[in-house]
Amino acid sequence: MKTTSIFIIFLILNQMMGQNYPAYQNLMPQPRSLTLHESRFVLDSLFQVTIPEASSKRVQIAATKFIRRLTNRTGLFVKYGFPVSKKNNPQAAIEVHYKKKGDLRLYEDESYQIDISSKRIFIKANTDIGVIYAFETLLQLLDNDKDTYFFQNLSIKDKPVFTWRGLMIDVSRHFEPISVIKRNLDAMVVAKMNTFHWHLSDDQGFRIEIKKYPQLTEKASDGLFYTQEQIKDIVQYADDRGIRVIPEIDVPGHATALLTAIPEIASIKKTYQLQRHAGVFDPTLDPTNPETYEVLDNIFKELSSLFPFEYIHIGGDENEGKQWDANPDIQSFMKQKGIKSNHELQTYFNIKLQNILKKYRKKLMGWQEIMTDQMPKSALIHVWFGRAGESLKKTVKKGYYAVLSNGFYIDLLLPAATHYRTQLYPEGLTDEEKHRILGGETTMWNELVTPVTIDSRIWPRTLAIGERLWLNPQKVDIRNMYRRLFVQSYHLEELGITHLKNRDVILRNISQNQDIRTLKALTRLYEPLKGYTRNKGGKEYYTYSPFMLFADACSADAEDALKFNYAVEDYLKNHNSDSKKQIIAYFELWQRLHGKLQQLDTNPKIQKLLPMTKSLMKLSQNLLQLSNNSVEIDKGFIAHLRKVLKTAYKPYNDVDLSGIKSLNQLISYWLSLRGYTWK
Ligand code: ACM
Q: Do 451 and 176 contact (CB within 8 A), yes or no?
C-alpha cells in the first residue's frame, strides 16, 4: 500500500512539474507571439554560438553564460566552448544580431526575436538587452526526448508591456551580503526584470558607506554595510545584465538608523539606538533644520555619483509626525510658514529634496504618501497601499507617473496566484493615463528574512510577477501558471538561488542532522502564516531572533497542498478513480508522519512540532474513514470530524494548513453521498 501511494504521488508530481509538456509550453514569462514550425534543431557536440565582432560586454556575458547553462543542462561536451565572432565560424548553430548597446533608461527597446530552424538559430534584437532576454527564452526552450536534446523549430517575437519591472530588497531589517544580491540579480534576468530597488536605510540599519559621514555605518549598521567599492561592483554587475539600480534612503520617517548616527538633525534632540524589531517608529528628521538638508545634500551627492539611473527613491512612507507634533519649534515654524498639516510639512521637505536631486540631475521617486496637492507631478509615485486598482487609478488620474507594488508584497507570503492576478490597468483610464503606469515592483521586506531564507521568499513567486509585468496576461489560467512556475523554479538553482536547497539546510538544523524526509513532507503541506500574522505587532521576533525554524523551511505555495487541491478539483469534476486514489494516497502519507517524526531522536525543536503532526494524523485518519464506503459513519462521527478539522487547521509553529483549500468541498461531497450535509 505504501509503495503504491508514493508512486501515485510521484505521478501527480510529474504532471505538476510539466514533465509531459513540450518546453515551449512551459515558458515563463510567456512571449507575445510564438509560431510553431515542423521539425527540430538537434543539439550535438559541434554546437556553437557566434556573436558580432566587438560585441558588448552584456552580449559576451549572456552568450557565455548561456553555453555554460546549456551544457550543464544537457551534459553535452561541446567542442567549441566559448562564443566566437561570425567571421571565425560562419556555420555556427546560433547567430546573434543586434544594433546597439541599450541604455538603462525608461522605455529602452528590450524586444527580441528568435527563429529556430533545423540547422540554425537566429537571435535578433535592436539592443543588447534584447539579446540577453533572447538567450533566457532560448534556454527555456531546451527540450529532450530519450536520446537527444533539441529545440522545437519555431519563431518568437517578444517585447515587454511595462518598462518598469522591479524587485526591491530591504537590506536594513536584515543585511544581505553581496553574493545574495548578485544571485538575485541573475535570477531577475530569468524573470526578465530590469529594475533593482535597493532599500538601503531604515530604522534597523544604514547600509551604505557615505564618505562624508563615516558615523552612519560606524554607528548604525552593526558592521553590516556595503562599501562604495561594493556598490559600484553591484551597479556594474546589474548593468551587465540589463538591470538599472535605484537606491532608497528612507526619509523623513523610518530614519532611526540615520538619527542614531546623526542625532543633530532629529525632530526631538536625544540619543537614538537602532530598532531591533519590526514596526513603525517615531524618530523623524527635522524638516525645519537647515542642517537636515545639508546632510541629505551630501548623502544624495554621493549616491548620485554611484548610481547612474535617473531616479533616486527618498522613501517618505509611514511618517506619523509624532515628533513634529511634540516639538514646539516645529509647530511655530509651521504657523509662521502657513503650513497647516504634517502632510504639508512633509511636502515642504520633499520639494526641498527634489531641488537637491535636481542639482545632481536626478529625479525623485517616493512611496505613495508623498503624493499631496502641492507635490510636483514630476515626482514618481510608488503605490503600495489601499485597494491596488483604486490607488493606482487615483495616482495617474492626478497626473503622476506611477509604479505599482500594491499586489506584489511578497512578504505577505500569499500564493503566487494572488500576485499573478494583480491587474496593472484599472478600469476607466484613458490611454494617456495608462501610459503613466510605468510598471510594478515586487517588494521583499526583510523583517523575517535572512540570507538563508531570502531566496525562498522571493522565488519562485517573483517569476509569476515577472510574467505579469512582461506580458500582462488578460486571461489567467492559474493551473497552467503553476505548472510553468515549478518548471522554471528548479532551473533557478543553476544560478545559485537557494530557495530549494536551503529548505534542507533548515530541516537538518531542526533534526540535528537526522533523516529529514519526514520534515520535508511536512514542509510540502504547511505554509507560513500569511498577512503579517506571524510576528503580530512586530514584537515576537527581533532582528537577531532565530530564523531557521520550521516556518522558515515552508513556502507560500506548499507543493502538496496545491497538488492535493487539484486532485480534489478533478475528482469533484469527473468523479474519476485516479483522482480519488491520489487523494487517498495523501491521507495515508499524512497519517504516517506523526509516527515517523516520533522515531527521530527528539530535541526541543522537534518536540514543538509533535502537536501539529498529531492533529494532522487524526484528521487524516478520519478522512480515510470517510472516504471508505464500507466504514459506517453517524452524526457523532461528523461532530468529531469537525473538531479534528478545526484542531488541524489551527496555527502551529507559525505555519498552518491554509494551503489546503479544498477539504471542505471534499468532505461535503463525501457526506452528501451518505445523505448528510456539511456546513
Ligand atoms: C511600506 O511598505 N512602508 C512602503
A: yes
**Burial of residue 142, with CB atoms counted within 10 A of its CB: 0-12 exposed, 13-18 middle, 19 or more buried:** middle
| Domain ranges (residues) in the chain | 6-13+557-673, 33-158, 164-498
Cβ neighbors of 505 (< 8 A, separation 6 or more) are 452, 498, 548
Q: Tell me what pLDDT residue 126 has.
A: 98
For the CA of 445, the closest atom of ligand 1 is 2
Which helix (H) or strand (E) segment holds residue 150: the answer is strand 149-158
**Which string of b and e fits 151-182 if b means at least 16 CB within 10 Å?**
bbbbebebbbbbbbbbbbbbbbbbbbeeebbb
CATH of domain 164-498: 3.20.20.80
How far, in Å, CA of 578 to CA of 519, rounded?
Answer: 27
**Residues ≥6 apart with Cβ < 8 Å to 328:** none
Pocket test for ligand 1, best of 313, 318, 369, 391 (most atoms within 8 A of CB): 318
Q: Which atom of ligand 1 is nearest to the CA of 315?
A: 4
d(CA 352, CA 296): 10
Backbone angles phi, psi at 362, to 5 degrees: -120, 150
Peptide bond into 460 cis (omega under 30): yes
> Do the domains 33-158 and 164-498 sit in the same CATH topology, yes or no?
no
CA of 198 to the centre of ligand 1 (A): 13
pLDDT of residue 47: 92
Amino acid letter, residue 351: I
Q: Output the CA–CA distances (angstroms, integers) from residue 207 to 123, 230, 482, in the order listed.
A: 40, 11, 36
**What pLDDT score was predicted for residue 231?**
99
Residue ranges of the chain with per-residue pLDDT less than 70: 1-19
Q: What is the pLDDT of residue 14?
A: 53
- Centre of ligand 1 to C-alpha 439, Å, is 17
**Spatial CA neighbour of 156 closest among 173, 139, 181:** 139
Ligand 1 contacts (CB < 6 A) are 317-318, 367, 384
Q: Could you tell me the distance, in angstroms and rounded to a whole number, from the CA of residue 445 to the centre of ligand 1?
A: 8
Using the atom order of ligand 1, give the atom closest to the CA of residue 382. Answer: 4
Q: Which residues contact 661 (CB under 8 A, 6 or more apart)?
A: 561, 565
Question: Which residue, judged by its Cα, is nearest atom 2 of ligand 1?
Answer: 384
Looking at domain 33-158, what is its CATH homologous superfamily? Chitobiase/beta-hexosaminidase domain 2-like (3.30.379.10)
Closest-lying ligand 1 atom to the alpha carbon of residue 409: 2
Phi and psi torsions of 119, nearest 5°: -110, -30
pLDDT of residue 536: 87
| Beta strands 244-249; 195-202: pairing state | parallel
For ligand 1, atom 4, the nearest C-alpha belongs to 317
CB 167 within 8 A of CB 458: yes
The grid coordinates of residue 61 equal 556575458
Instruction: Give the residue numbers annotated as catalytic, written as ranges.
Output: 318
Q: Which helix (H) or strand (E) holds 365?
A: strand 363-367
